[in-house]
Structures are given as structure tokens and as C-alpha cells.
Q: What sequence folds into this?
């Protein structure tokens, strides 16, 4: 289906058509003309263009800011533009909207979901809370706005342990939705009264214990970087703690920490356990280091739905707008603000 807008094309002299295909909008190449047009349209809309680390390299390169979801949400809140274009998945754009209710937040393709966020619905959480009425609910940021609205404290992978440790030891804790991060938190805090939802990110499947061990053994001089921000590598975080790879080789890092470590590492080669999009920023930060994915199939198809065609469509047509009901946003904002107040919720770009 062609969905070409009848508004002026402006891509140099080249007319473009984009098409809706199973993996998202397609039909536009990320040429220099495309990048110039994206920047022109963003300025014309008075929009700030944000891209998550797991976006396609061309989307990262054209964005005003690249980072993890929390850093981007903070940048969104501080931006002086009327509009935020969030190149990432839907729950991230919702978080930006929660923190910037007065701005228009657009995502280039609203179908860019997240298997981890989808693993618990608001109704399922209501039912779980009814079983444990006195429990404190801790949710990883990979959740919908509605689930955040039913949450006491949100957390990132960087501060999940601190968040749970800050809760009265006699209180039950409901931890959701990521079972690997939950298991890591349970091990680190030694708490028995933490109940863990059995959710996971399907990109995890590509980063398992056997793969980690085999890669570490076949690259004995390489460092191992784990960046569990998005949920795709929380299994690696858990497995590293279980001793699948030698402790001294493992560096568990936030985005900023990972980029600093990339510039400072003495290793010639670094194995990276996370979604493969992160390799682009690492290779730019330290071109002399050979960065290899622990599993090069660990690619999130939702992230990759934000295509050059989708971004052009978004900028030309002002779609798709992200809406969060004001009462849900107000409750969700409290849980996100508590997250920001505890420990180190993660670094910026
Ligand atoms: S990598 Fe996993 S956790 Fe991250 S957006 Fe994709 S499905 Fe969700």
C-alpha cells in the first residue's frame, strides 16, 4: 500500500514513495538528501529528534540526541521545542510524554512495541496486587504507562537493586516484568519476600549462557561489556552473576559507562552482550577496538521498525502521536520520579 503524502516532497529533486510492509514502512533510502530533509523538517516543526541506542545507524546519526530511554526522556523534558520525535519503542515514547505532558510526542511507527512491556497488562497487575494487597510494586521501565500508573516505584537495570533495598524488609515486593532482572535483584538483596513476574524480552533468547561461555572461551583476551538497559541483556547480567564467565572480564555498564569504558579499554577486542544497535555508538567512540556482538542475531525487530521511511512519514504527516490519559500520566509520573530519586538510575548519552 502506498501511503505517500501529497504534501511537498522536498527530498532534493527525488520523488519518494513509502510503503507499509510487515517490518514497518519502507521504500526510502537513508541518503544524504534524506538526512538533510529530515533535519529541515524537524527544524520546521520545532521538534527535537531523539534516537535510542538500538536504532538503525542512519537514525542514530540524524538525531539530535542518542541515548538510553531514561536519558532521552530527561532530554525530552528539558527540550525547548514544542515537539519531541522519539525514535524508539512505544513505552519509551510514553515515558517521554509522562515527563513532558505539555509537549507533543510523536513516534514514527506506533506499532513499535516491546515483548517485555507486553508481558504484563494493567489487568494482570491489578489481579496480582489483589493477591498481595500490602506489597510494594516495583516495575522495570519497560512497561506501559497504564502499568506504571499502578506501580509504586519504577526502576532501571542500574538502580533496581537500590530501589528494592530501599523498601522496608518486612514488606512483600512485586517485581515486574523481567524475570532475569528480578532474579538478579533477588540474589543481590538476599530478599525472600520478592515475587517475580515471569516476563522476558524475546531478544534474550539470542544471549544465553552457552553462547556467553563459548564466546568468552574462544576470545580469551577480550573484555565482556554487558549493557542491560533495555531488557535484551538482563539474562547476561544474571548469567555473569552465576559465574558463566570469569568475573574479572565482565563489565556491567550503563550507556555512558559503556562508552567511557570503550575509550579506555586496553583490550583489542570487546564482546558486547546487548542488542546489536549499541555497536554503532561503541565503534564511533573507539574506532581502534574490535567490538563484536555476543550474538549478532540479538536485534530487536520493534526498534528496527523506525525506518528512514517511517521517520520521513512522521515528519511530513505529524504521525503517530503518543497519548497518555492525564490521570494515568499523573500516577505514572510519581513512580518514575521515585525511580529518579533512588540510587543511580543510569547515565545519559
Ligand atoms: S530489545 Fe527487548 S526489551 Fe528492548 S525494546 Fe526490544 S523487545 Fe523490548
A:
Amino acid at each position: 500500500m502506498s501511503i505517500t503524502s501529497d504534501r511537498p516532497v522536498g527530498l532534493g529533486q527525488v520523488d519518494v514513495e513509502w510503503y507499509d510492509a510487515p517490518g514497518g514502512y519502507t521504500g526510502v533510502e537513508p541518503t544524504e538528501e534524506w538526512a538533510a530533509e529530515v533535519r529541515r523538517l524537524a527544524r520546521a516543526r520545532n521538534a527535537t529528534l531523539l534516537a535510542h541506542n538500538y536504532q538503525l545507524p542512519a537514525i542514530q546519526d540524524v538525531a539530535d540526541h542518542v541515548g538510553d530511554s531514561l536519558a532521552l526522556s530527561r532530554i525530552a523534558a528539558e527540550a525547548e521545542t514544542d515537539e519531541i520525535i522519539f525514535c524508539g519503542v512505544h513505552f519509551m515514547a510514553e515515558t517521554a510524554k509522562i515527563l513532558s505532558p505539555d509537549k507533543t510526542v510523536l513516534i514514527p511507527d506506533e506499532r513499535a512495541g516491546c515483548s517485555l512491556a507486553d508481558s504484563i497488562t494493567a489487568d494482570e497487575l491489578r489481579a496480582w496486587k489483589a493477591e498481595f494487597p500490602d506489597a510494594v510494586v516495583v516495575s522495570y521501565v519497560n512497561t506501559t504507562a497504564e502499568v506504571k500508573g499502578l506501580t509504586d516505584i519504577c526502576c532501571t537495570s542500574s538502580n533496581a537493586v537500590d530501589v528494592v533495598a530501599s523498601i522496608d524488609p518486612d514488606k512483600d515486593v512485586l517485581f515486574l516484568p523481567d524475570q532475569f532482572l528480578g532474579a538478579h535483584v533477588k540474589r543481590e538483596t538476599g530478599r525472600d519476600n520478592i515475587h517475580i513476574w515471569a516476563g522476558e524480552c524475546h531478544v534474550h533468547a539470542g544471549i544465553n549462557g552457552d553462547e556467553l561461555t563459548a564466546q568468552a572461551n574462544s576470545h580469551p583476551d577480550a573484555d565482556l561489556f554487558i549493557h542491560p538497559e533495555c531488557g535484551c541483556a538482563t539474562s547476561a547480567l544474571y548469567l555473569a552473576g552465576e559465574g558463566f564467565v570469569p568475573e574479572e572480564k565482565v563489565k556491567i555498564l550503563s550507556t555512558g559507562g559503556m562508552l567511557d569504558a570503550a575509550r579506555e579499554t586496553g583490550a583489542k577486542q570487546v564482546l558486547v552482550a546487548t542488542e546489536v544497535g549499541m555497536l554503532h555508538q561503541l565503534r564511533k567512540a573507539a574506532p581502534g577496538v574490535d567490538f563484536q556482538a555476543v550474538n549478532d542475531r540479538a536485534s530487536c525487530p520493534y526498534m528496527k521498525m523506525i525506518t528512514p521511511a517511517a521517520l520521513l512519514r512522521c515528519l511530513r504527516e505529524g504521525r503517530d502521536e503518543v497519548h497518555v490519559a492525564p490521570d494515568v500520566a499523573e500516577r505514572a509520573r510519581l513512580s518514575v520520579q521515585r525511580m529518579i530519586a533512588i540510587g543511580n538510575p543510569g547515565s545519559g548519552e
Remarks:
- Residues 153 and 337 are 8 Å apart (CA to CA).
- Residues 1-14 have pLDDT under 50 and may be disordered.
- The first helix runs from residue 32 to 45.
- The first strand starts at residue 19 and ends at 21.
